[in-house]
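Hypothesis: this fold can be encoded by more than one sequence.
Test: take the structure tokens below, design a sequence, compare later.
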């Protein structure tokens, strides 16, 4: 599974598939203090689980996981910048903060408009 495929599952609201895809990306990553993608994939796997739990009617579980994922994303944004792997991490954290109150508010991930992964400095533009 590629990050683009995982993002596609998320954007379509396929929470179980997105959860599994981001979890596979996380488990396949080399953990590094200079490359925050492993923690990003972990946080997004947790965030996708919010959608799964919400659909199962497990609202308390969804709120708890949303809170953990939002905290992880906020920390990533503070330590590595607001855009990682083309994803607006700050916006994702804010979206999840809303989900702590109402997990049905889980929405699409915002992609960075400038095409630059600010954590690595790499451009995703062709």
């Amino acid at each position: 599974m590629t990050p683009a495929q995982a993002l596609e599952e998320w954007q379509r609201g396929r929470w179980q598939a997105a959860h599994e895809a981001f979890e596979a990306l996380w488990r396949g990553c080399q953990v590094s203090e200079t490359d925050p993608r492993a923690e990003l994939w972990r946080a997004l796997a947790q965030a996708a689980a919010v959608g799964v739990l919400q659909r199962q009617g497990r609202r308390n579980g969804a709120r708890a996981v949303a809170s953990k994922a939002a905290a992880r994303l906020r920390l990533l944004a503070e330590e590595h910048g607001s855009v990682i792997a083309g994803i607006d991490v700050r916006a994702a954290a804010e979206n999840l903060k809303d989900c702590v109150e109402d997990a049905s508010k889980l929405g699409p991930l915002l992609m960075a408009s400038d095409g630059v992964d600010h954590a690595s400095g790499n451009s995703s533009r062709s």
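Residues 114-126 have pLDDT under 50 and may be disordered. The chain has one domain: 3-108.
Hypothesis status: open.
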